[in-house]
C-alpha cells in the first residue's frame, strides 16, 4: 500500500488567496498553511502597512478608504504575478470585482467561513479595524457579514472554521481542500 505523503512532499501549483470576514483567521491560518507547505506567505494588509509605514487605521484616517482600496488592488495584482504563495487578503478585498477577476485569473480563492458569533468574539476587543469604529460595532459587523456573505460565496473553495478548531486544524482543512482540487499535488519523484 502506498505510504501517506508528508505535507513537505506536496507542491503548490497556484497562489491560494484566503478571503472572508475580518476575524475569520485569514492571516493566522494563511501563515500556518504556508509554513506547512514550505511556501511564501503574503498578507495584503501587512504589505500595505509596510509600504506606507502606517497602520491600516492611520491610512483610513489620513487618506480615506478609497485610497486604501486602490492600494489593496495594486498589492494583490502584484503578488498574484509572483511565484505561487499563500496570500491572505483584507476582509474587503474580495468585494471588489477587479480583485475577484485578478484572483480567478491566476490564483484560487478560499473563503474562510466563520459564524458571526465567532467573528465577534475575535474582533470585539481589538481596536485595529477602522470599519468597526462606530457607535455599534456589533451591528456594523453583522451588517457587513450579511452584505458580504453572498460575495464570499463566489470563492472557488469554502472552508468552515469552527470555534473549537485550532489554527493548525483549520490550516489542515484548507490543505485537504487544496489537495482535493489539485491545487497542491505530490512533488514529482516523491
Ligand atoms: N482557528 C483559529 N483558532 C483560534 N484562534 C484563531 C483562529 N483563527 C484566528 N484566530 C485568532 O483570531 C484573531 C483574528 O484572526 P486573524 O487576524 O488571522 O483574522 P483575519 O481574517 O486576518 O482578519 P482581517 O480581515 O482583519 O485581517 C487572531 O487573534 C487569531 O490568532
Ligand atoms: O473587512 C474589511 O473591509 C477590512 C478588513 C481588514 O483586513 C483591513 O483590510 C481593513 O481594516 C478593512
Ligand atoms: Mg488579516
Automatic annotation (TrEMBL):
The keyword ATP-binding applies. Substrate binds at residues 45, 69, 91, 148. It is found in: Cytoplasm. One of its GO terms (molecular function) is ATP binding. It is an enzyme of class 2 (transferase). Mg(2+) binds at residue 27. Pfam families: SKI. InterPro entries: P-loop_NTPase, Shikimate/glucono_kinase, Shikimate_kinase/TSH1, Shikimate_kinase_CS. Its main location: cytoplasm. It catalyses: shikimate + ATP = 3-phosphoshikimate + ADP + H(+). Its EC number is 2.7.1.71. Pathway: Metabolic intermediate biosynthesis; chorismate biosynthesis; chorismate from D-erythrose 4-phosphate and phosphoenolpyruvate: step 5/7. Gene3D superfamilies: P-loop containing nucleotide triphosphate hydrolases. Binds 1 Mg(2+) ion per subunit. GO terms for biological process: amino acid biosynthetic process; aromatic amino acid family biosynthetic process; chorismate biosynthetic process. ATP binds at residues 23-28, 129. It comes from the Bacteria. Keywords: Amino-acid biosynthesis, Aromatic amino acid biosynthesis, ATP-binding, Cytoplasm, Kinase, Magnesium, Metal-binding, Nucleotide-binding, Transferase. CDD domains: SK (cd00464). PROSITE patterns: SHIKIMATE_KINASE. Catalyzes the specific phosphorylation of the 3-hydroxyl group of shikimic acid using ATP as a cosubstrate. NCBIfam families: PRK13946.1 (NF010552). HAMAP family: Shikimate_kinase (MF_00109). Monomer. This is Shikimate kinase. The lineage of its organism: Bacteria, Pseudomonadati, Pseudomonadota, Alphaproteobacteria, Rhodobacterales.
